[in-house]
Design goal:
The complex is a heterodimer of chains A (329) and B (447).
Chain A: H1 2-8, H2 13-33, H3 39-46, H4 54-66, H5 71-87, H6 93-109, E1 123-129, H7 135-148, E2 153-156, H8 165-176, E3 179-181, H9 189-203, E4 207-210, H10 220-237, E5 243-249, H11 255-266, E6 271-275, H12 285-292, E7 297-301, E8 309-311, H13 314-321, H14 325-328
Parallel strand pairs in A: 1-4, 1-5, 2-3, 2-4, 5-6, 6-7
Antiparallel strand pairs in A: 7-8
Chain B: H1 4-17, H2 25-41, H3 46-60, H4 63-66, H5 71-87, E1 102-107, H6 114-127, E2 132-137, H7 144-155, E3 159-160, H8 167-180, E4 185-190, H9 198-211, E5 215-221, H10 228-239, E6 243-247, H11 256-265, E7 269-273, E8 281-283, H12 286-293, H13 299-309, H14 312-324, H15 329-340, H16 345-350, H17 357-360, H18 367-378, H19 382-386, H20 393-403, H21 407-427
Parallel strand pairs in B: 1-4, 1-5, 2-3, 2-4, 5-6, 6-7
Antiparallel strand pairs in B: 7-8
Helix pairs in contact in B: 1-2, 2-3, 3-5, 5-12, 6-7, 8-9, 10-11, 15-18, 18-20, 20-21
Chain lengths: 329, 447
Amino acid sequence: MVFWKRMFGEEKKQEQEKEKEQGFFQKLVQGLEKTKQGFVDKVDGIMTGRKVDEELFEELEEALIQADCGLPTAIFLVDQLRERARSERITESEELKSVLVEEITALLERNAAPLKTPEEKPYVIMVVGVNGAGKTTTIGKLAYRFKQEKAKVLLAAGDTFRAGAIEQLTVWANRIGVELVSHAAGSDPAAVAYDAVNAAKARGSDVLVLDTAGRLQTKVNLMNELAKVHRVVQRELGRDLDEILLVVDATTGQNALSQAKMFQEAVPLSGIALTKLDGTAKGGIVLALANELNLAVKLVGVGEQYEDLQDFDASAFAKALFGQSRENA
Amino acid sequence: MAFQNLSSRLQETMRKLRGKGRLSEKDVDGILREIRLALLEADVNYKVVKDFIAHVKERATGHEVLSSLTPGQQVVRIVNEELTQLMGGSQAKLNLSSKPPSVVMMVGLQGAGKTTTGGKLARMLKAQGHRPLLVACDIYRPAAIKQLQVLGEQIEIPVFSMGEQNPVDIAKAAYAHAQRHNNDVVLIDTAGRLHVDAELMEELVQIKEAVDPADILLVVDAMTGQDAVNVAQSFNEQLELGGVVLTKLDGDARGGAALSVKAVTGKPIKYVGISEKMDGLEPFHPDRMASRILGMGDMLTLIEKAVSAVDEEKAEKIAAKLREAEFTLEDFQDQLSQMKSMGPIDQLIGMIPGMNARQLQGLEVDDSHLKKIEAIIQSMTPEERRRPEIIGGSRRKRIAQGSGTRVQDVNRLLKQFSQTKQMLKQLSGSQGSPRGRRKKGMFSLFQ
């Protein structure tokens, strides 16, 4: 089991970790740099060379809302800052900025957790989410990552509904060079899952990644279907799945909260994969998700390349979000 | 149901005002604060909200409101008017050129729903007598071309593709192909791209220059957050959009993006996507949407749907029976099948005035319950449907077996049916006004 050792063993650690963190940071910074009207500049503008007063707090709240933090979370953060500014007698805006980064890091770390450490073969990941969130692409990137770790990967084409979805995953599987289980379009996704689990066992796969069709969280019938697929996998596996990731598009607004809540009701989510973070300087929805729900952001997609799927790093994210990159990058 | 939460918020605020004789300026500020919060929670862009509130405030604190006898209603009216205006006044149609073929480009971010919308639009145009051609210009996403081909097959519309060649060349060749094959509308499906990706945005500009489209539609996900304004602005600046399509409105996204996009680009929202199926594209009605936000219900759409699905003669008979409280299970069965042909129940209920989000919570309508009810009724004899009171124990058992349900299900249906009838009787006045606890009646069957 070379894969387990490589992926989770002791030998990698330190320098690799550092390298990775650097990579994550750079990618994020690049992503965030892409837009000029970004959050970064806005907060920089607000927080530069000013006295700390009520006006500044209001502008900050505005900036947070515009970054999709949502009202409750924006108010929570600003209240937090107000309190600390008062008790720590902070009067300069620059000083307040580092406090804000601290607070955001703390908020994000409340829920931070890496992908679960595998205990048993196959390591099973199910990927769920609304239409167009980026599930299939995320699976492609995940598969690439596991493949790099020398794992024997099996993908399951569980989106039997959307036209071309099976073909899309097939292309990914071929490009990366991993195996795929698929049925005809329109067939029962639970049957695909059943076959996939048994194939993974029979072939001795290290990792099984299950794709599912995109569905809006309000569609009761489709959510029931998802719960059924999950039950089938659980039954065939004889245990819980290792990860059930909700894929959320970073440009999504407050609806992401509803998505997380309602998918959680259908299947036990283990974390969130935040996609398309490169297109927006926002992604503030991550803060709302961390503040209002107990869900860990585990992965972030920061670009279109295979390797652009990274482990989520709360402090790097907070720093990149707030333009501390300028000095370091 | 989009806008659901926004409309319940506004309804609540408005309720506080009802019956108030005169409004102080402070009252108005209080209302506007609520509206502001509701709009922000709905993902309407911050700046758009600011302008909107300022505008409403100006009018609401003016002479017309404060001196009015029903100031609460005046504010509702103003908010409604302003919302309608913000979303685009009256309904806008797809631009087609006078000299066919007309080219229509679909553009937007990844995962917004461009390809699906392209298919839906082609199907709609075909139903209107056009001869559309779909063009696969997304050469980047794996199997995007295949997706369009499969859709084309489903809806029987030709798809033009040239593999993974330069999209500009594909678009040009498609135009020539359309001319030769007498296609009057060319729908170009482009690859999803970030509005900040200069290289890919340039590609769109080149396609535009090559084929001179009559309309360019920006496809926007209704769930988009604050960034919707930047996306729309950026696409509009570089391409001069003709309009917007708002997708995934069948979820519970509050859809603030609709307000934002219209406000920053000035371009009309032309269509909305309301289902995953190929017939799930509808024209956008700003006035109706504004009414819906304010909790006045979307009666017009409901009526339109009913007219196209309901047999008028039958409907009149049923109405008469309802008045006479002679409504039988047979009539109910007819109603069910007509209702089903109008579309998913949850969408219909959302259009009924006075049905706000709070009331709808817990009323998760699952069409499969309807199937159960239908099966039970179908397993009855005509005599039993007309006179349900004759259904005794052994008949119940038989019906349950025949419909694959349990005796309890049959009992439940019969009980609720008789309660409904009782209610109808009371409503029609034969036994005075209804008293005591209100029964939930037939609606609870769908839960």
